[in-house]
Automatic annotation (TrEMBL):
GO MF term set: DNA binding
Domain of life according to the entry: Bacteria
PROSITE patterns: HTH_MARR_2
Pfam family, one: MarR
Entry keyword DNA-binding: yes
Signal peptide positions on this chain: none
Database matches in Gene3D superfamilies: Winged helix-like DNA-binding domain superfamily/Winged helix DNA-binding domain
Protein name per its UniProtKB record: DNA-binding MarR family transcriptional regulator
Species for this entry: Lysinibacillus parviboronicapiens
Transcription regulation found in the keyword field: yes
Residues covered by the HTH marR-type domain: 3-137
Classification via SMART domains: HTH_MARR
Length: 144
């Protein structure tokens, strides 16, 4: 593939991603971006965790994770759990309000994607799905 086509593809993907992020952010009633939502999802899926573990799992720096955790705690979407045996051990846990925010984020995210793909017909969706599967497989193959 020639370089011009690659750059055009990258530009189109960036435009699509930016538009989707803007649509999501406008519809989401919490002052959060995608990163804190990913943290809430990780806490929901795997339970309370140390911030350092979360940072490593999700791929954030410890400093970024500290900022995200502080924001989630201030909004009441997560809370810090202190280990009774060792007060230095602190885990972050999703709250009931955090669970509600996560459900809302997932609902809005689904709607944003449905709106994105509704311009495609069934054949185009099938082709796009094959391309995405190939791209994901390529990423997984390079991680091994």
């Amino acid at each position: 593939m020639e370089q011009t086509s690659i750059f055009k593809l990258i530009h189109m993907i960036e435009q699509m991603n930016n538009a989707n992020i803007i649509r999501f952010t406008k519809a989401f009633p919490y002052p959060l971006g995608i990163s804190p939502i990913l943290v809430l999802n990780e806490l929901h899926s795997n339970g309370p965790q140390k911030q350092a573990e979360l940072a490593e799992t999700i791929g954030y720096t410890k400093g970024a994770m500290t900022n995200i955790a502080e924001k989630l705690v201030k909004l009441g979407l997560a809370e810090r759990l202190y280990d009774q045996a060792d007060r230095r051990t602190i885990r972050l846990m999703i709250t009931n309000e955090g669970e509600k925010a996560l459900v809302k984020a997932q609902s809005i995210g689904k709607e944003v994607f449905i709106q994105l793909f509704e311009v495609l017909n069934e054949e185009e969706i099938a082709q796009y799905l094959l391309i995405q599967e190939k791209l994901v497989q390529g990423i997984q193959d390079k991680q091994l």
